[in-house]
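Model it.
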Amino acid sequence: MYHFNEPLIRINMKKLLIAIAVLYGFNAGAQVTWHNSAKQLSKNVYEVHITAALQKSWHIYSTTTPDGGPLPSRLIYDGIDKKSLGPVLEKGRIQSRFEPVFNVRVKYFEDSVTFIQRVTFKTPAPLLISGAVEYMLCNNRQCMPPAKWTFNIKPD
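Modeled.
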């Protein structure tokens, strides 16, 4: 009788899915369109809005997707320490389902999602707020390799 190491199989399945996506050269950029803006709330506080508009049948994972699952979306800012960031709010219709490949309940958005985050600067804000969104897209047949979209926002 064979005994399988289930956590090892899950890890290898994740690696296999990512490797297949890379080998086929999928381009996540073709499946999502990004928009951004920032508005000033007070002297040194801005609210950043990053919107992902997805092609039909594709989804992007929530920033709250649990460990062990696919790559959660993440906002990264150039030159801003984490203490200066508020929590990421997500505006969109969140979906949740158990994903056997990852053995976790994943959270994701279809159609579109707007990530909203307050950023506090110690000095007056720069002319541009720069950073990136790390994300992963999937549909019911395949997952794209993790991708990064960079942004430069001129605050209103």
